[in-house]
Amino acid sequence: MNKHILIVGGGYVGLYTALRLQRRLRRELRDGSVSITIIDPQSYMTYQPFLPEAAAGNLSPRHMVAPLRRVLPKVRILNGRVTKVNHAARTVTFQPPEGDARDLAYDVVVMAAGSISRTLPIPGLTDIGIGFKTVGEAIALRNRVLHLLDVAESTDDPEVRRRALTFVVVGAGFAGVEALAELEDMAKDSTRYYRNIKPSDVRWVLVEATNRVLPEVGPEMGKWTLEQLRERGIDVRLETRLESCTGGHVVLSDGTEFDAETLVWTAGVKPSPVVSSSDLPLDERGRIRTLATLAVEDTPGAFAAGDLAAVPDLTNPGEFCAPNAQHAVRQAKVLGDNIVRYLRGQELAEYSHKYVGSVAGLGLHQGVANVYGIKLRGFPAWFMHRTYHLSRVPTLNRKVRVVVDWTLALFFKRETISLGEMEHPREGFRAAVATMRR
Ligand SMILES: Cc1cc2nc3c(=O)[nH]c(=O)nc-3n(C[C@H](O)[C@H](O)[C@H](O)COP(=O)(O)OP(=O)(O)OC[C@H]3O[C@@H](n4cnc5c(N)ncnc54)[C@H](O)[C@@H]3O)c2cc1C
């Protein structure tokens, strides 16, 4: 009888679990006794640590994603969203991009839908805020920063200029600091092509509710990062919250007020909403409760890992694994093996990994690292950041393309044009039709 394994989400956990299953269940996939399906709105897995480099124009966005259908030829890929999981009936509700939703049956489900930005009810946030979790957001931000330099150069109004040249990032974790550092570096680099914009005219504000930046690299390197950012002229506000940003008028909890055209929100993540539309057990933070085996608690046939799961951290009793790629990739491998064991009626293995620290890029030739207790800063850390992520980005094909992008960047100046027009491709044609009507 065919056993159907359904994976909800084709990101880190989804891709790596499927790769493992594709290899370990080769025979079963061939004779049809097992089938695997991944459901994801996108047909690719995004290597999120490269988003800041893509935003800065050091990498082509196409080279930081792995095409699911090419990498997983034995797996059926369905594009669309899972809107409900009814594990009691072993079905998910699948909403394709076109047409009606339909139910799909499974024997084993893997919840791998990751996380979304954790937002707060701040006035104006939905109007001007943008997240930094997808390729679309990273490229839109790149286009926006470069477009606003164009706006500032072309206006006579000092207010418009000041507002265009003010960029706010809320949240000083991985995503916020790397995004800000890379975009600031790109904007600074780009000002050389503008007659009336000096690097110091562009204002970057980093707003963080706690008293530290980049906790992922530890207190010492976090402090060094803070000093570096401030030396670069970035206005870092610690122990400060965003109170409102209605119409682009930013109000901070320390009483500061100013206008900004751009606000990037990177203040944490929460599990994908599909989790709350399931009958799986959740913890108080809305994550799926799993055992260390990545099996969902008291729910045979259901597994979960990555950002949406509360996986006990066996190296740190009482704690749960942090939502990061380091855990997601390793969990996926154990998860894949455990599904094979589950299908064969064998005992499941437990996931255990001690967090080894992190590397972060802070712009071209700048970085910070704290890995296995080795602390690096500046160029060596940046080099380590690139080498590490190159070794991690999936498939040889992507690795080669990334190296080519970086090599070209050694010899040619980076592209600093905004292609924001690509977000509205029909505008020119619509204007042409309108002239005909007149
Ligand atoms: C800018 C940035 C930089 C980062 N840098 C690092 C780093 O340097 N080191 C590190 O360890 N971690 C880093 N992270 C964190 C890391 O990327 C995440 O922890 C990791 O992606 C989590 O993997 P996941 O599989 O749980 O989720 P994801 O990789 O996000 O995958 C989730 C997938 O589920 C899909 N999905 C969502 N909802 C549905 C639905 N309803 N139905 C079907 N599919 C759905 C999504 O489209 C997505 O493809 C970074 C994150 C960001 C945003």
What features would you describe in this structure?
The chain is 34% helix and 22% strand. It has helices spanning 12-24, 26-31, 51-56, 68-71, 125-128, 135-154, 158-164, 174-190, 218-231, 325-343, 379-392, 396-411, 427-437; strands at 3-8, 34-40, 44-46, 65-67, 76-79, 81-86, 91-95, 102-105, 108-111, 115-117, 129-130, 166-170, 203-207, 235-237, 242-244, 249-252, 257-259, 262-265, 269-271, 288-289, 302-304, 309-310, 357-361, 367-371, 374-377. The longest helix has 20 residues, at 135-154. It is globular, with a radius of gyration of 23 Å. It starts with a strand and ends with a helix. Bound molecules: flavin-adenine dinucleotide (FAD). Residues 8-14, 39-42, 48-49, 51-52, 81-82, 112-114, 132-133, 174-175, 178, 272, 274, 306-307, 323-326, 328 line the site of flavin-adenine dinucleotide.
Compact overview of the structure:
This protein has 13 helices and 25 strands. The protein starts with a strand and ends with a helix. It is an alpha/beta fold and 438 residues long.
Structural class: alpha/beta
Strand content: 15-25%
Rounded to an integer, what's the Rg over CA atoms? 23 Å
The shape is: globular
Terminus-to-terminus distance = 66 Å
Bound molecules: flavin-adenine dinucleotide
Poorly predicted runs are none
Number of strands: 25
The major pleated sheet works out as: 5 strands, parallel
Average pLDDT rating: 94
* Fraction of residues in helix: 25-40%
For the largest beta sheet, what order do the strands appear in spatially? 5-2-1-9-21
Continuous helix count: 13
